[in-house]
């Protein structure tokens, strides 16, 4: 009997969940499309297909943001329908309790949370990068000459004589000074023709210049390597611009965080923002469970009072949004180092879940 009930509740909840997710995603997609069309109207030669593609590429990021609210709304709809059909009364008559419904749904939501951070996060990070590239290509955003990758830091400098493509495997920051290791410089003409290749173990940025104390210059025409003691190039790179170009944690894959955090710390930069978001991702499945329990707390117990359903729906929505904003507050406190990383990320869920379980135990028998 319990296995039949589990299959029934899980399949019914999944249908409601997918329907709610589709509706909310469609609404957000429509709003994003309208906003992008408004921005595209200020530019020429931007076709509707590119704008639609941008909106679709942005939607995976938005799905992760609305996921907790989808769980909250789906739970409310499911439990209200469960009560309306008197299925809970029939279950109690058979000697079962509401926990026989809640437990499989909790496992399901926890599994969906794991699927989101382990599988969906890499997909959304890829679509975010494609979104940025397409946005730059069609002219809705300025192309950035800087790029952080796992291989190091890349940037491009336009000069009077051509273009410099520079890569540094490691970047170190110490008291406002920037030093580079394993530097490669590709010197291109204005026609993008290869002129020379420069390799150096160390370099530094000072007073708007890239200074290379000792370099090995490869000349393709003479086909030989020349050693030069000092080279310098004008550059627009600065500490402020370096910090601005760090990848936003919301656009990064879950699997990329550990390596990137180590890279930032080794380079001497603060990785606090990425650490907080990484811990938030690890706590995300529990946060979804908290949202499910909130919906159950307000809408699962039957209410025969007139107007009681409306008040319970308002209570569930208010508590769910309150928990979300509480998580944003702890996030800020984690960024400011006012709270440890674990408490900043896991605190809201660890507070909400025991409270909801205690209240449900008080309301439910057995």
How do the strands and helices of this protein lay out in sequence?
Layout: H1 2-40, H2 48-84, H3 87-93, H4 99-138, E1 146-149, E2 152-158, E3 162-174, E4 177-189, E5 194-206, E6 209-212, E7 215-219, E8 224-228, E9 231-234, H5 239-244, H6 257-267, H7 272-299, H8 308-335, H9 341-363
Whole-number total of structural domains:
2
Q: Which structural class is indicated by helix and strand composition?
A: alpha+beta
N-end to C-end Cα span: 18 Å
Q: Mean pLDDT, nearest integer?
A: 82
Shape by Cα distribution:
elongated
Uncertain runs are: none
Measured as a percent range, the helix fraction is 55-70%
Radius of gyration: 27 Å
**Strand content bin:** 15-25%
Q: What multimeric state do the chains show? A: single chain
Number of strands: 9
Largest sheet: 9 strands, antiparallel
Instruction: List the total number of helices.
Output: 9
H/E element sequence: HHHHEEEEEEEEEHHHHH
Brief descriptors of the model:
366 residues; nine-stranded antiparallel β-sheet; alpha+beta; 9 helices; lipopolysaccharide transport protein A fold
């Amino acid at each position: 009997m319990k296995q039949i009930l589990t299959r029934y509740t899980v399949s019914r909840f999944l249908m409601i969940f997918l329907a709610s997710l589709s509706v909310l995603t469609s609404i957000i997609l429509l709003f994003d499309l309208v906003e992008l069309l408004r921005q595209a109207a200020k530019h020429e030669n931007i076709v509707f297909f590119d704008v639609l593609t941008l909106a679709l590429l942005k939607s995976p990021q938005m799905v992760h943001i609305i996921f907790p609210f989808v769980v909250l709304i789906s739970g409310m709809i499911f439990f209200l329908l469960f009560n309306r059909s008197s299925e809970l009364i029939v279950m109690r008559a058979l000697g079962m309790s509401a926990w026989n419904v809640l437990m499989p749904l909790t496992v399901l939501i926890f599994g969906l949370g794991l699927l989101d951070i382990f599988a969906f996060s890499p997909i959304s990070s890829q679509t975010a990068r494609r979104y940025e590239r397409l946005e730059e290509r069609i002219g809705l955003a300025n192309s950035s000459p800087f790029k952080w990758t796992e291989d190091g830091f890349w940037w491009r400098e336009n000069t009077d004589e051509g273009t410099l493509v520079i890569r540094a495997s490691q970047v170190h920051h110490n008291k406002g000074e920037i030093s580079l290791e394993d530097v490669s410089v590709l010197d291109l003409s204005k026609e993008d023709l290869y002129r020379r290749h420069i390799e150096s173990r160390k370099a530094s940025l000072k007073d708007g210049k890239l200074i290379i104390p000792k370099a090995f210059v490869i000349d393709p025409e003479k086909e030989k390597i020349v050693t030069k003691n000092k080279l310098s190039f004008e550059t627009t790179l600065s500490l402020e611009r370096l910090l601005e170009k760090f990848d936003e944690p919301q656009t990064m894959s879950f699997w990329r965080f550990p390596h990137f955090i180590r890279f930032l710390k080794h380079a001497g930069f603060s990785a606090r923002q990425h650490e907080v978001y990484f811990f938030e991702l690890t706590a995300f499945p529990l946060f979804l469970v908290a949202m499910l329990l909130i919906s159950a707390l307000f809408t699962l117990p039957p209410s025969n009072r007139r107007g009681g359903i409306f008040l319970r729906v308002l209570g569930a929505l208010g508590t769910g949004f309150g928990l979300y904003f509480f998580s944003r507050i702890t996030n800020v406190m984690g960024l400011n180092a006012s709270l440890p990383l674990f408490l900043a990320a896991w605190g809201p869920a660890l507070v909400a879940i025991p409270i909801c379980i205690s209240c449900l135990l008080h309301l439910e028998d057995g």
